[in-house]
Specification:
By secondary structure, this protein is an alpha/beta fold. It contains five helices and seven strands. It has helices at 15-28, 45-55, 90-94, 99-102, 146-158; strands at 5-12, 34-39, 70-73, 80-84, 107-111, 124-133, 136-144. Helix 1 (15-28) packs across helix 2. It is globular, with a radius of gyration of 15 Å.
C-alpha cells in the first residue's frame, strides 16, 4: 500500500506569519507527532520551534539544543521534545534511542532532521524553511502518512502562500 503524501507552501512575510503557522500546526498536534525541520542557518528553525512549544503550553524559555542535542519540556497539552542533530553522525544519533521520543507521549521537533532521515518514522511532517530576505520565509511542508497529509491540507485551506 502506497503511503499518502500531502504538500503545502506557507509564505511568511513576517515573524508573526511564521508564528501563526507554528500555532496552527500545534493545534493539530497529538502524542507521537513528529515535525522534521530543515533549512539554512538562520532561517528560523528555532524560532518556529519556540512558537510551537508556546502554543502547546510550554512555559519558560525554549532555546536551541545545539550542544545538548535533546531538551525535554512539559507543556500544558503535551510534553515537548526539541532536538538538534546538526552535530551528530547517523551512527551517534542511532545510539540515542530516539524511538522513545518519536513514539512517545509528546511532540517531537527535530532540527536538521535530514541528517538522520533514515532514523525518522515513515509518518512525519517535514518542513523546509527558506530565507527570502528580511523577515520573509517560504516554508515547504510535506506530510507523510494520512495524518500529516491532512495537516498539509489544513494549511492549504487556511491560506498558505498568502
Amino acid at each position: 500500500m502506497q503511503q499518502q503524501v500531502g504538500e503545502a507552501t506557507w509564505v511568511a512575510q513576517s515573524e508573526q506569519d511564521t508564528i501563526a503557522l507554528a500555532r496552527q500546526l500545534a493545534a493539530m498536534a497529538n502524542a507521537g507527532a513528529l515535525l522534521a525541520l530543515d533549512g539554512d542557518l538562520g532561517a528560523g528553525k528555532t524560532r518556529f520551534s519556540q512558537a510551537f512549544a508556546e502554543a502547546i503550553g510550554v512555559k519558560g524559555i525554549v532555546n536551541s539544543p545545539t550542544f545538548t542535542i535533546i531538551k525535554e519540556y512539559e507543556g500544558d497539552k503535551l510534553p515537548f521534545y526539541h532536538m538538534d542533530v546538526y552535530r551528530l553522525s547517523l551512527e551517534e544519533a542511532d545510539e540515542l534511542g530516539l524511538d522513545d521520543y518519536f513514539y512517545g507521549d509528546g511532540v517531537t521537533i527535530v532540527e536538521w532532521a535530514s541528517l538522520i532521515k533514515e532514523l525518522l518514522p515513515a509518518e512525519r511532517l517535514e518542513l523546509y524553511i527558506e530565507h527570502l530576505g528580511d523577515e520573509a520565509r517560504r516554508i515547504q511542508l510535506t506530510g507523510y502518512g494520512q495524518l500529516y497529509a491532512g495537516w498539509c491540507e489544513a494549511v492549504n485551506e487556511i491560506g498558505a502562500g498568502r
